[in-house]
Amino acid sequence: MELEKLRHGTELLKRGFAKMQKGGVIMDVTTPEEAHIAEDAGAVAVMALHMVPSDIRKTGGVARMADPQIVAEIIDSVTIPVMAKARIGHFVEAEILESLGADMIDESEVLTPADVKYHIDKRNFTIPFVCGARDLGEALRRIHEGAAMIRTKGEAGTGDVAEAVRHMRQINEQIGRLKGLDLQDMERVAREIEAPIELVLETAGMQRLPVVNFAAGGIATPADAALMMKLGCDGIFVGSGIFKAGKPTIMASAIVEAVNNFDRPEVLAEISKGLGEQMKGISFSSIPKEEILQTRGW
Amino acid sequence: MKIAVVAIQGNIEEHITTAEKALKEMGLPGEVIPVRHSGTIPLCDAIILPGGESTTLGRLMAREGIDGEIKEAATAGKPIMGTCAGLVLLAKDGGEQAQRTGQHLLGLMDINVDRNAFGGQRESFEVPLEVSILDSPYNAVFIRAPVITRVKSGVDVLATFEEHIVAVKQGNVLALAFHPELTEDFRIHRHFFGLVQ
């Protein structure tokens, strides 16, 4: 086999990796033990971080990439893919995570942004990135920078699903409105939403984002997860919802099953019984403006 | 012809689209059905097990009762194709990783597999691959791919990459370590549909 024909880090491989996650639940974990619980429950991947978003919210201060020691231990302890978060624009954190062998990087607004002007140029990396978005323009800008997967930003660490719903609906509506537009109108929309015209045309043709689109930010129960699947997302990220619940093991399995049974209310009813204490949460409307995470990035 | 695509988790839409395009190219009337729950597989003529996360897929297939239906279909001689995670699920021996995680396997092929044999996503690759059932190389997309470490007699090796076995066939069951649904080359799907009686 000629080795020069062997290719790593292609767009097909990056987007393909994201596609393998579809229909799955990706869980935030902070220790190898939590990673095992997630894997046993049927998570398709874990997100390694030093504390879950609700704790980041409580603790305040600057939130950074997780300790590489912990990321490495989590990578060694599970067979499913391990993702990790880097700060917006912090390409060195991303390089470190790539060198550790993380399978995907989340350039995340949950951490304190490191660059007020530029997101990471994700095309320079071998491993794929996932990025948050609140609307179509933001999603397409991130895809243009090389993101292989998009997730709603929602409002992380709240347990309030309303913002994830808002972002998913917003993106769906904007995609729907592209239907039947002529080229001039497409160009007008591209200017308005500040997105490259090629990606607007591609999205219009596919009637969906050109990459996998997950829901994230505030999902705390099996019913929340099923709601997001009903709204057309490809899968779910759960952050604080699992390990801030009274019985994380049971909650983790229940959310996985809910994603596979999102269109069967009678099954969801069974799944949702007796889950114990749920993450307490904080309603989005009660959060002071300066503590809102979703407005980080652009 | 009814083709079931096990649609619990993973690269489902791509498998459905590719299967539909391949059927069309062959001029065969057919229907491709995504299957998430039990009850549908017995009505189908062939089954595709997509890539995804094999740990997750195995667990949910058992919970949904789809695993038993697939085993019955195999006994009845219906063609089955597993790609990547689907390959792992078809194996009798899933290797050390599968044992550690107590993975549910269908065990329909006399092969041993090793999961994530090339490493993580950083090591994922695409490469033109010689496949014995095709007359020219196939652009094979390997994503955190498994390999086949041992085959027993009765299993045909269809492709190898750097000494690793990456595609096999045993009777009407076909297993690939790569993702034919991610390319626009339908030759492998066409071969598979050719197995349907």
Task: Please provide a written account of the structure.
The complex is a heterodimer of chains A (about 300) and B (about 200). The longest helix of chain A has 16 residues, at about 160-175. In chain A, strands 8-7-6-5-4-3-2-9 form an eight-stranded parallel β-sheet. Chain A has about 300 residues and is an alpha/beta fold. Chain A has 13 helices and nine strands. In chain A, about 40% of the residues lie in helices and about 10% in strands. In chain A, strand 6, helix 6 and strand 7 (about 150) form a beta-alpha-beta unit. The model of chain A has no long low-confidence stretch (mean pLDDT about 95). The radius of gyration of chain A is 18 Å and the shape is globular. Chain B has one domain: Class I glutamine amidotransferase (GATase) domain (Rossmann fold, 3-Layer(aba) Sandwich), CATH 3.40.50. The mean pLDDT of chain B is about 95. The longest helix of chain B is centred in the N-terminal third of the chain and has 15 residues, at about 10-25. At the A-B interface, strand 1, helix 1 and helix 12 of A face helix 1, helix 2 and strand 7 of B. Strand 1 of chain A pairs antiparallel with strand 7 of chain B.
Sum up the structure in keywords.
heterodimer; A: alpha/beta; globular; B: 197 residues; alpha/beta; Rossmann fold; 7-stranded mixed sheet; 12 strands
**Fraction in helix of chain B:** 25-40%
The profile of the biggest β sheet of chain B is: 7 strands, mixed
Counting structural domains of chain B, the number is 1
Amino-to-carboxy terminus distance of chain A: 44 Å
Kindly report the CATH topology of chain B: Rossmann fold
Strands of chain A, total number: 9
Spans of at least 5 consecutive residues with low confidence of chain A: none
CATH class of chain B: Alpha Beta
Sheet having the most strands of chain A: 8 strands, parallel
Q: Strand fraction band of chain B?
A: 25-35%
Oligomer: heterodimer
In angstroms, what is the radius of gyration of chain B?
15 Å
Strand order of the largest sheet of chain B: 2-1-3-4-12-11-10
Sequence of secondary-structure elements of chain A: EHEHEHHEHEEHEHHHEHEHHH
Task: Report the portion of residues of chain A in β strands.
Answer: 5-15%
Overall pLDDT level of chain A:
95
Using DSSP, what is the number of strands of chain B? 12
What class, by secondary structure content of chain A? alpha/beta
Discrete helix count of chain A: 13
